[in-house]
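Dear colleague,

As promised, here are the two records you asked about, laid out in our usual form so they can be pasted straight into your sheet.

NAME FIELD: protein one
SEQUENCE, THEN STRUCTURE:
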Amino acid sequence: MDGIDGIEMAISNIMASAKVGYNIIGSDVAGFSGSVIPPRLYIRWAQFSSFCGLFLNGGHGERALWKRSLEELEVIRKFSWLHTELIPYMYTYVVKAHEGGTVLQRPAKGKYHYLFGDNFLIAPIYRDDLRNEITLPKGTWRYFFNDKEVIEGPVTFNREFPLYEYPVYIREGAIVPMDIKRDYTGIGDRNSEGYLTLLIYPDGINEFTVYHTDKSGYTSVIVEEDPEKINITLGNVHKSHILKINMLVKPKKVELDNMMLIDSVNYNFDAKLNKLVIRTNDYKTGAYTIYK
C-alpha cells in the first residue's frame, strides 16, 4: 500500500484478526511500499505497535533511526522500550489465550479502538494529525501518560496528543506487571532491572495472575482497598518486586508480613506523581497492609 493509507489498512487488518481470535498480532511499522515515510506518521505507527503483540520495524525506506530525525529517534526509542517493558503483561495473555481464555487485543467501540488485555483502552491515531476522537467504555479511566487525569465512562471526546504521547487509557483497578531496565519511559530506571514492577491502581477488590517468562510459574496479585487501608497479597512464586501504587496522599504506615517498613528505606512516596513505591527483595508471605 503506497502512501499514508497504509497505516489505516494495517490497523483495520489487525482489528479484523483480533475479532476472530488471533492473539499476537502486529504489522511492519510504515511497511507500505514507498521510500518516503512521513515522520509524524512513522512515529504514530510505532506508538500503535507498542500496544500490539508484535512490534516490527520493517518495510521500504530508511529504517535506521539514527539516520532519521532526532525527534523520531527519541520518541520511537521510548515507545519501543515501553513495548519491551510490557512483556510480562503481554505474556500473561499468551498463556491465558493458550488455555482458552482472554486474548490480548479485542476490538471496542470507537474508530479502531481496542482493549489491550483487560486494563488498557487504545484509540489509535491513524492520520498525520495530533487530534483524535476517543470513546471510553463504562468505568473509571486514567490517561496513561498523565494518570492524574481521571475520566468517567462511557464518554466520547476529542483531544490533542503531542507526539511524545498516545491515546492510551488505563482502567481504575488495574494491576500491570512490567519488566523495566532503563529510564526511557519514565516509569522506572536502571535500578529496576531484576525486579518485577507492578503498577497498581487500587479500586475495591481486583486481582491479576502474572505468568513468568522464565517458566518459573506464576505470581498471584490481589489488591483490596477500603476507606482505611489497602491490602496487597502476592502469592505463589516469590519474585523481587517494585510496587508502584497510585495514592493521593502519603500513607500513615506500611507493613509487610506484619512487620513495619521504614520510610525512605523500604518505601518512598512521590507526591508529585501520587505514587507509593515499595521495593522488596525477600519476603515470607507477601502480605502488605498500607494504612491511609
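NAME FIELD: protein two
SEQUENCE, THEN STRUCTURE:
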Amino acid sequence: MVEVGLVLGGGGARGFAHVGVVKALEEFNIKPVAIAGCSMGAIVGALAATGVTSADIIHHINEFKFTELLDVGSKEALNRGRGLEKVLSHYIPETFEDLDIPLKIMACDIQKGVQVVFDRGDLRGAIRASISLPGVFPPARVNDKILLDGGMVNNLPVDIIRAMTHKPVIAIDVAAPPDRALDFEGANSWWDTLITKKQIERPLIMEIVMKAYDIPQRLLTDARVALNPPDIFVRPPIDPEIKVEDFDEWEQPLEAGYSATKTALEAEGHKVGLSRE
C-alpha cells in the first residue's frame, strides 16, 4: 500500500472527476493518509475520508436526483442551499472527528478577505461554506464569520496538505479553463432567457461574471502550485462546455479524472513510491 497526501480542487460539477481519481488510486493500491479539499473537492474528499469506495460514490450519484438541489428564492444567491444541506446530511458525517482520514477544508471570510481552514467540529457546515460560490449559493454563517467558496483564495490547497503529511502529494485541479470562448453574438440577454423559459442556461451576463472568476483563479492556482509543487499534478481533460452547475453531466468528468490520473500514475508513479515493475 502506497500512502500519499491528496489535494482535490474546486470546480462544481466538474469535480465529479475526483470520483474517477479515487477509482484510479484504488486500482493502483494508493491510500490517501491526508486530504485537503475545496468546494466540490471538499465533498468528495469528505466521502473518501469516511472510507467509502469509488463504487459506493458512483452508486450514490446514480440514485440521486439533481433536481433535489433546486431551491430558489434567496436574496443573496440563485439557490438558497437548503436542498444541498439536506443532501449533505444524508451522505456526510456530522463532524471531522467522525472521519477515518484527516481532512482540511478551505473557505473564504467575505468580510476580512482571508482564507479560513476547517479541520474540526462541524463537517457539514465547513463543506457548506466551502461550496458557497458567489451568486449561486448564499454565504454560510459559521460562528461569527460570513463565508464564501474557498476557491476565491485557495482552490487547490497544496500548501495546506504539506503541513498535514510528509508523504508524496497528488493534486487534482478541475477548475473551469480560463480560455473557454464566450459567445457574444448569439447569446441571450438575462431578460430573454427569463421570458422565453428555455432550457436552463447561463445568460451572457452570468457567463461574463463566471469568466471573470475563472481567470484570476487559474492565475492564483498556478502561482500556488509553483511555490508548492505537488509530486503529481493532474488537470483532467474535462469538456470545457461542462459548467460548474451542470450536475447532470457527471459521466464525462468522472471518466476524464480516472483516465488522466491513471495515465499520470503510469508515467510518474515512481514519484509517489510506485514500482515500475
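A couple of things worth noting about protein two: The longest strand covers residues 30-38. The mean pLDDT is 89.

Best,
R.
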